[in-house]
Automatic annotation (TrEMBL), chains A, B:
It comes from Modicisalibacter zincidurans. Catalyzes the attachment of proline to tRNA(Pro) in a two-step reaction: proline is first activated by ATP to form Pro-AMP and then transferred to the acceptor end of tRNA(Pro). As ProRS can inadvertently accommodate and process non-cognate amino acids such as alanine and cysteine, to avoid such errors it has two additional distinct editing activities against alanine. One activity is designated as 'pretransfer' editing and involves the tRNA(Pro)-independent hydrolysis of activated Ala-AMP. It is found in: Cytoplasm. Homodimer. It catalyses: tRNA(Pro) + L-proline + ATP = L-prolyl-tRNA(Pro) + AMP + diphosphate. The lineage of its organism: Bacteria, Pseudomonadati, Pseudomonadota, Gammaproteobacteria, Oceanospirillales. The gene is proS. It is an enzyme of class 6 (ligase). HAMAP family: Pro_tRNA_synth_type1. Residues 33-469 form the Aminoacyl-transfer RNA synthetases class-II family profile domain. This is Proline--tRNA ligase. The keyword tRNA processing does not apply. Its main location: cytoplasm. PANTHER family: MITOCHONDRIAL RIBOSOME PROTEIN L39/PROLYL-TRNA LIGASE FAMILY MEMBER, PROLINE--TRNA LIGASE.
Amino acid sequence: MRASQLLIATLKEVPADAEIVSHQLMLRAGMIRRLTSGLYSWLPIGLRTLRKVERIVREEMDRAGAQEVLMPSVQPAELWQESGRWDQYGDLLLRIRDRHERDYCYGPTHEEVITDLVRKELSSYKQLPSNFYQIQTKFRDETRPRFGVMRSREFIMKDAYSFDVDQAGLQRSYEAMYDAYMRIFTRLGLNFRAVEADNGDIGGSGSHEFQVLADSGEDAVIFSTSSDYAANIEKAEALPAPLGEAPERPAPQEELRLVDTPDARTIAALVEQHGLPIDKTLKTLMVHAAQGGLIALLVRGDHELNEIKAENLAEVATPLTMATEAEIRAAVGAGPGSLGPVGLDMPVIVDRSVALMSDFGAGANVDGKHYFGINWERDVALPKVADLRNVVEGDPSPDGQGTLSIARGIEVGHVFQLGQKYSQAMNATVLDDSGKAAKLWMGCYGIGITRIVAAAIEQNHDDAGIIWPNAIAPFEVVLVPMNAHKSQRVRETAERLYGELKAQGIDVLLDDRDTRPGVKFADQELIGIPHRVVIGDRGLDNGELEYKGRRDNDNTMIAADSLVDFLRERLQG
Amino acid sequence: MRASQLLIATLKEVPADAEIVSHQLMLRAGMIRRLTSGLYSWLPIGLRTLRKVERIVREEMDRAGAQEVLMPSVQPAELWQESGRWDQYGDLLLRIRDRHERDYCYGPTHEEVITDLVRKELSSYKQLPSNFYQIQTKFRDETRPRFGVMRSREFIMKDAYSFDVDQAGLQRSYEAMYDAYMRIFTRLGLNFRAVEADNGDIGGSGSHEFQVLADSGEDAVIFSTSSDYAANIEKAEALPAPLGEAPERPAPQEELRLVDTPDARTIAALVEQHGLPIDKTLKTLMVHAAQGGLIALLVRGDHELNEIKAENLAEVATPLTMATEAEIRAAVGAGPGSLGPVGLDMPVIVDRSVALMSDFGAGANVDGKHYFGINWERDVALPKVADLRNVVEGDPSPDGQGTLSIARGIEVGHVFQLGQKYSQAMNATVLDDSGKAAKLWMGCYGIGITRIVAAAIEQNHDDAGIIWPNAIAPFEVVLVPMNAHKSQRVRETAERLYGELKAQGIDVLLDDRDTRPGVKFADQELIGIPHRVVIGDRGLDNGELEYKGRRDNDNTMIAADSLVDFLRERLQG
C-alpha cells in the first residue's frame, strides 16, 4: 500500500481521556476513533491489525476441526427466557424492542442460539463431536466503558461451542480447543499464560483463561517460578505446606487469656495497639449457610478470603452472601470486630493456614474483648479445614515445584466446560449409541478479538509508540525513499523494491508522502511497523539500504540485492 | 474439507413458509436456518459462499483505492438528529435505549457516522479524494420480513462513502465505483445490468442500480433490445417518438361533443361502454402543487403516471401528494371520474404521448359527462409538456437504438451521488486550494452481500437444486469415492487426489460420508457444487475418473492423471 493513499491520522498529543497506554497509542496511531461512550470506529490502520488477528484465529479454529457459522447479533427474548438468563443477566444485556413490541437483545454471547440450532439440527451421537464458531460483533452495556477497546460496549468476539454425547467427549473437545488457543496466542506473538480458572460446579480442570502478561492488566495471574503451573487468583490452590511436606502446627507456648480491646475492631488496630504479629491474628467472616443461618469462615489476619472457593463449599449458600451487622449481632451477641472461634455456637470452617496457627488472637464474641494465646484442641476443637484464601507471593506451588509468584494479566481468551447447563435448561438431546435420548455435553470457548489488539500494545510499546509482533503488524515493512522528488534513482529503486516485496507476499507500506523524513519516521514508529528500510542516494552509491528494526537502536546497512532474503529471515523470527 | 466433518443439513421437503426458490433452496441445502422473523443463522455451507462474495467485493474495493474501515453497528441518536433522519426514517430504524436511557439505533446505513468521522479527520483538499468502505451487519426493522435473506431484517452490506472537494471529483469517484461494481458482479459470475436510477435533485447520471436478472425479481429493469441502455422504471425516459424522428400529432377528424357518461367513472368503463379505444382516453390526476393548490397531470389511459418523474417537476409539491376527492370537488366541482383538460381552471402538465393525441375523450369536469373528439389547440390550448409516465414494452430507446424491453431484476448494488446533502446538514468541510472552507461532495455505494447469495440462486438453479457460479460455490469440486470401505485402491486414490487438488488451491470437498452414492449425489446437486468427480474401481481399471459438471446431463470419463489440468480449465471458464 502507498502511504499517500492511506488515512494516516496520527496525533502528537496524548488524548486527555485515555487512561491506559494502549488506548492512548491506538488513538495517537490513528487506529481507532471514539464515536461515543464505549463505541469505536476502526480506521484503516487499526482494521489491518484486527483482520490479521481474525485470520490467525480462523485458521487455527478451522485446523482444530471447528466449523464456522454466523448467527444473528439480535436474539429473541424467548430463548433467553428458556435458559433463565433473561432475568439473570441484568443491565449488561442491551435489550431491544422491535416495531411489533417484541423483545430482543443485542447478543453478548450465543449459548442459547447455538443450543437452539443444535437441538434442531443434530439428532445422533454419530454427528458428534461438533464444534461451531463465529467471529462476530457483540454488545455488553457496561456501566462504565473504559480503556478504549479493552472494555468497550461493542466488540468483536470469536465464540465457539462444542457438543459431545458424554463428559469424556467434552474433555477431548476441550483439550483440542486448549491446544488451538495455545497455537493462536503463540502465532500472535504474545507473551501469555494459560491459567487454570474456576468453573463452579463442573469441577475438574474444566476452565482456563488465556492471559496476556502486562503490568496494566486487571487480573492477577498466579504462576510457579519453577514450572508451567498457572492459575487465576480465584482458582490457585493455597497449600498448607510445600507438597510432600507434612504441615505442622507449633506446640502451644502461651496461656489463653481474655483481654480488653475496646478500640481494636480491625486487624490493623489489634496489631498496632496490642503488638500482636499479624500472622497471629484471625479474620472471622460470617456468611449465609446453605442450610439457613450463618456459618463462620476463618482466614489468617494477613490473608484474603477467596470468595469463589468459599462459594464452592457445600456448606455455604450460593451466591456468597456476607452477613449484615444486625444478623451477626442477633446470632452472636457481638459486632463484627469482636468475633472468634472460642465459644462460638455456629458451624465454622477454617482455612488450612489457620489450622496451623498456635498462640493466636481472635475476638471473644463479646464487644471490646479478644482472646490471646488461643490454641486449637486445647482451647477449642479444630473445625472443618478447607482452602479458603487467596494465595500470596511465595506460597508453595500446588504442583510441588517451586513457589508462586503473581503477575498482572489481561484476559484475552477463555475455555470453559459448561457441561449440561444449557442442554438441561433447553432440552437439547441426541440419541446415544443405545438409542436413548442423551443430554448434550457442551463447552464454550471465547477469544476477545478487539481486546487482543489492545493487549498486544500494552505488552509491546515504548516511548515512541507501538512495537507490533510481525504477525499482527498493520504493515510488516515500511519503505522510505529519501529526497524522492530530487532523485530519480531513489524513486525507481523504491518502486522496484516495493513491487518485489509485494510479489513475495510481504505486507509493505511505501511511504511516498510529500513530508519530511523526520515526520515519516515518527509516524512509522508510533504506528509500530516492525521493519524500516530507507532508500537514499548515499547508500545506493554502495548498493546499500539502511535497515532499522523497530526495537533496534541503530541502523544497519544492508546490500540492496539481499533485501528480500534479509527481511524474510527477520519476519520468520 | 471432508464431508464427514461438515454439517450437511439438507432437507428433502420444501419448507412450507418459503415462498421463493432461493429461500427454499437455501433452507433445503442447509445454508441458513431461521432464528425468528427476519433473522437467519448462516450454517457452514452457506457461510462459505457468503465469505467468497465478501472476498471478491473486498478485493475490488481495495483495487479501486477504497480504504476499509469498521464503524460501530450501534449509532447514537444525536448524529441522526443532526442529519434530520432520526425523525424521517420511521419504523424501519431499530431504536435502542441503553442503561443510561440514551437513544441509539442499530445502523441501517452509515452516512452520519462516516460524515462525522471525516469532518473530524480530514482538513484539506490534499487528503481528497477519499473513499471509505466497510463490510458489516446492518438492521432494518421491516414490517413484513420475507423471502429469507432476500429481505431479512439483519443483513450484511458493503457500504462505501466517497468524499471530494468538488462535483467533478465526485463524478470521478463515482465512475471508479461504477467500474469496480462492474468488475465485482462480473467476477461473481452473475447475469446483471447496471441500470440508470433516479437521484432526485442531484441530476445528471448520478445513480445506478445493479440488478441481477431473474424472473422472481421485484424490480422492473428497462433495457434496449439493441444497445447497452438500461434504467429502472422510475428513471427510464419515455420518448414521444424514436430519437431523430419528429413526433407528429394527427390532424383532427372528429367534432368536439359533450356526451352523457353516467356510469363511466373509470377508463375501463369508458372503453367498454362507449367503444373508445383506450389510447384515445386520458387519465387526469390531480396532485398538490409546489405553490399551493392543485395541479393536473395528464397521461394516456393505457399509461401509468411515473411518480418520481412527477415529483422531480418544479411545479409539483414534494413529496408527491395525490389530491383527495374532497379537494378535487372543491377545486373543480366534479369528482375524480369526470376530469379533463377542457375548461379546467388550474395548472396542467401533460405527458409527451398526450401531446400527440387527437380526437380523444376526457371528463368534462361535470359529474357524469365526458367530451369526445377533443383536439389540442382547436378545443383547448396545449399545456406544458413533460415526460410523466412509465415506459412500456416497445417504446423507443432513449439512446436512439432499438426499442425498450422490460425484465425482472433483483437489486444487489446501488451507486449514488449524494452531493452535499450530508456535508451541508452536518457542516463537513475541508479547506480548498484557495484556503476557503468547502463543503464536501459525497457519494455512497452499497452492495447487499447477503442478498447476492439469494439473487445468485434465483438466477442459477434447476429442479435438483442450486447451480453455483464457480467463484462463489461453497466448494468448487466434490470428490466421491465409490465403495471406499471395500476398495483400498479407491480410498488411496481419493486421498491422493484430495491432497493434490488442495495443494493446487482448488476448493475441494471429499465426500467421505458412510452413505449411499445416490444420497451423496442428491446432496451435492442440491448444494450446487459445480464439478463432481467420481472415483470407482471400474474407471480406475482404465486409469479413469468419472466427471460431471453440475449443468451436464452425462458423465465424461477423464484420465486420472489429467484431473488437475482438466478442472483448472473448467474453473477458469
